[in-house]
Amino acid sequence: MEILELMKQRHSVRQYKDIAIGPEQRIALNHLIEEINGEAGLHIQIFYDEPQCFDSMMAHYGKFSGVKNYIALVGKKSPKLEEALGYYGEKIVLNVQELGLNSCWVAMTHGKSQADVRKGEKQICLIAFGHGETQGAPHKNKPLQAVCNRTENMPEWFLNGMEAALLAPTAMNQQKFFFELFSDSKVNAVCGKGFYTKLDLGIVKYHFEIASGRKLQS
Fold first, then answer.
1. Which GO terms of the molecular function aspect are on file (predicted)?
2. Cross-strand bridge partners of residue 73
3. Using CA atoms, how far apart are residues 74 and 132, in angstroms rounded to an integer?
4. Burial class of residue 55 (count of CB atoms within 10 Å of its CB; 0-12, 13-18, 19+)
5. What is the 3-state secondary structure (H, E, C) of 70-132?
6. CA end-to-end span of the chain, whole Å?
7. What number of other Cβ atoms are within 10 A of residue 202's Cβ?
8. Range(s) for CATH 3.40.109.30 in the chain?
9. 75 and 42 in contact (C-beta within 8 Å)?
10. pLDDT tens across 170-214, in order?
């Protein structure tokens, strides 16, 4: 499936059916997470058929139901950890969607996960996933001029990247990011202040890079 179409189809889902994740889907997700952990030096972990984490007051407050599968985003503490987990977490989220499943980024509205968080590591958030009761609904977007420095005569690759960036999930749909396209065709992205904006920046960067085919300045 074309990547922009996949991004358009993927929406946050909080209610799930009581259907187990299939063996082929498990193999694909396990392989992807193992590959990411090896490449990025992260400690992302996946849990199937584990209902306790979302059987909590906070999860019910967050309107979650039927969640039995989740991914714990864990890594070594560093200033870049949140951004890295956002970037690679969104890679997993889009893969989940491609496998015919649904997902939701979850920051605080969950109980205790079963993740093995070692000394010097930190769990940033979770990704709930499974067979959704619905396919979710699209979020509202900021206008293009609010999130980048160029709105006219944009190269097609940059426009594709920005369209993808606006489709990216962000905490409370705050979209506190900004892209700058320079005259030498280099692109920089920064985040504003707020809850989980560094995580959001990683998510948005993944969307931009995969849709534009261009790497952002680090």
1. oxidoreductase activity
2. 125
3. 25
4. middle
5. EEEEEEECCCCHHHHHHHHHHHHHHHHHHCCCEEEEECCCCCCCCCCCCCCEEEEEEEEEECE
6. 28
7. 25
8. 144-212
9. yes
10. 998 999 999 999 988 999 999 999 889 999 999 999 999 999 999
Architecture of domain 144-212 in this structure: 3-Layer(aba) Sandwich (3.40)
Average pLDDT, rounded, for the chain: 94
**Which tokens belong to 103?**
């997902």
- Whether the Cβ atoms of residue 70 and residue 105 lie closer than 8 Å to each other: no
**Check whether domain 3-130 has CATH 3.40.109.10, yes or no:** yes
Q: How far apart are CA 11 and CA 204, in angstroms?
A: 15
Return the amino acid letter for 147. Answer: V
CA 51 to chain centre: 21
Q: Is residue 145 packed enough to be buried (19+ CB in 10 Å), middle (13-18) or exposed (0-12)?
A: exposed
pLDDT number for residue 62: 76
- Cα 26 from Cα 104, distance rounded (Å): 18
Length of the chain: 218
Cα gap 105→125, rounded to integer Å = 8
The Cα–Cα gap between 171 and 6 comes to: 20
- Distance between CA 197 and CA 117 in Å, rounded? 22
% the chain with pLDDT above 90: 86
Domain with CATH 3.40.109.10 in the chain: 3-130
